[in-house]
Design goal:
The protein is mainly alpha-helical and 510 residues long. The chain contains 22 helices and no strands.
Length: 510
């Protein structure tokens, strides 16, 4: 008997996720992939009641949280640099993938052309639930990471819109005119962006009226889910709406309307929310895989999986040839990673499960989707980190590692000195003991500072990078101070706007 997520089962799943999270500290396996494997083992052994992964659970509960958290953390200044390749990959790249997969499935299986194209749309989305979880901690180049994240975020919205258009064509049995289809597509995508941007901007202005981290966390939650629901009611793209709202709030509202402590609290909340939802989603993906059904459709699966991989490769390699420039290069090593990083996940499964029960070939399309998702998670998902290391993309620079280690020790040492001073002022430790410990800490501070300085002397790039990072941090602190002056009424809005624009210009130059 299938059932949805109840409290007792939720606790069991969270306990399993925690156990897996602890285990992967010693087992060299990505946390998300380990969850899928554990979920499959639980499903094979029937250790839990059959859990149903409903479209509502993914699309209405999980997806807004994951999309908002990812877009909230996107650095708009870096996104602007890569907006052209991200936009092309997420639009034209998705369309190319849909047609290649659709034509291949129609040519080599018994699927009708419209059903084959529908399958192409539901499998075109490189799910951010999968991609972001895997690449965020790989230590790869920041622009490459943003290319992967940005493309996966925006192509989800495009793929969902194409899926809905294709599904309506399949149900109606008639193909609308091309101009009408293009108009509808643009209306849905741009409409979603407008809805999300307006809600994000409105929330940013509203947050200025108070400074309460609990209220501001609540407001961001309302924006994340409210933008999704409002976009659905207006028949525009809810995915694009959430992403747009997150980018506006994360890059504008959080810096102009939130205090540093509030921004830290909001960051922590969404980081935990994404971790929690990610854990449940990956476990549920594993629990949904039914090997006995996959074995019944080996031939169409043998067509679907290579078609999806080939379509991804053709779209990325083909478009990259025209997009790479001297000012914004796309090295071949990056293209390999973007192709192999096109994992599919819960969104594809949710779209497949949302097909009407009387839809022709529904069972086949669902099984094909599950098979492709399982393959991409286990094969590219388990080998992407090794590929990045082989291409020398994710291999951390030894100087950078040593610099980070020394800097962390220096900061911890400074905190210890501050704590010791507090203990001395409180008279909880004798002056003799305090002096002895203080001398040791000061000597260690000088030793660490000298070691850091030596790295700077021998590594000019390191010194330059730290200088830029420090300048950026100082400018952000100035923006925080300006926002506080506006809230307290010391500086008028029009004056603050002029100063803020100058600071933004300096940040942009960095």
């Amino acid at each position: 008997m299938h059932q949805t997520l109840h409290v007792d089962l939720l606790i069991v799943l969270l306990s399993i996720a925690a156990a897996v999270g602890i285990s992967v500290k010693w087992i060299k396996l990505p946390y998300s992939i380990a969850l899928v494997i554990v979920g499959m083992l639980i499903g094979i052994g029937n250790f839990l009641p059959k859990l149903e992964m409903t479209p509502e659970l993914i699309l209405l509960v999980c997806l807004p949280a994951l999309l908002f958290e990812a877009s909230w953390n996107i650095d708009l200044s870096i996104l602007k640099l890569s907006i052209v390749p991200i936009s092309i990959f997420a639009t034209l790249g998705v369309v190319i993938s849909v047609f290649i997969v659709g034509i291949s499935m129609h040519a080599f299986t018994d699927l009708p052309l419209v059903s084959s194209l529908l399958f192409g749309t539901m499998i075109a989305a490189t799910d951010p639930i999968s991609v972001i979880a895997l690449f965020r901690k790989m230590g790869i180049d920041k622009r490459l990471a943003l290319l992967l994240e940005g493309e996966s975020l925006f192509n989800d919205g495009i793929a969902v819109v194409l899926f809905q258009l294709m599904l309506s064509i399949c149900i109606a049995g008639a193909v609308p005119s091309i101009p009408k289809t293009i108009f509808t597509f643009l209306l849905v995508v741009l409409g979603g962006g407008a809805v999300g941007s307006m809600l994000g901007f409105a929330a940013s202005r509203l947050i200025r009226l108070f400074d309460d981290h609990l209220l501001e966390i609540t407001l961001t939650t309302i924006v994340a889910y409210g933008s999704y629901l409002l976009a659905e009611q207006l028949h525009v793209s809810p995915v694009i709406a959430v992403v747009s709202a997150g980018i506006v709030l994360g890059n504008y509202g959080s810096h102009t309307s939130m205090s540093p402590s509030t921004r830290l609290a909001v960051n922590s909340f969404w980081e935990y929310a994404a971790f929690l939802v990610n854990s449940l989603v990956f476990l549920l993906i594993g629990l949904q895989i039914k090997f006995e059904l996959l074995s019944n459709y080996l031939v169409p699966l043998a067509v679907a999986i290579p078609s999806v991989i080939a379509a991804r490769a053709i779209a990325i390699y083909g478009l990259s040839f025209f997009l790479a420039t001297k000012s914004l290069p796309l090295p071949y090593s990056w293209r390999h990673i973007i192709v192999w990083g096109g994992l599919r996940g819960a969104l594809c499964m949710a779209l497949a499960l949302s097909l009407p029960f009387d839809f022709p070939q529904r069972d086949l399309l669902i099984i094909l989707t599950f098979g492709v998702v399982l393959f991409t998670l286990l094969v590219p998902g388990l080998t992407i980190e090794s590929l990045a290391k082989a291409l020398k993309i994710s291999a951390p620079d030894k100087a950078i590692e040593e610099h980070q280690r020394l800097k962390a020790q220096l900061i911890m040492n400074a905190r210890a000195i501050e704590c010791l001073a507090q203990l001395q002022r409180a008279r909880t430790v004798s002056d003799i003991v305090c002096k002895s410990l203080h001398d040791d800490l000061v000597a260690r501070k000088h030793k660490l500072a000298t070691a850091i300085e030596n790295i700077h002397v021998t590594d000019e790039a390191m010194r330059s990078a730290e200088e830029i990072a420090t300048k950026r941090r100082l400018l952000e602190l100035q923006k925080d101070a300006l926002a506080e002056l506006v809230r307290s009424g010391v500086v008028l809005d029009n004056v603050a706007r002029e100063i803020s624009e100058n600071l933004d210009h300096e940040l942009q130059e960095l």
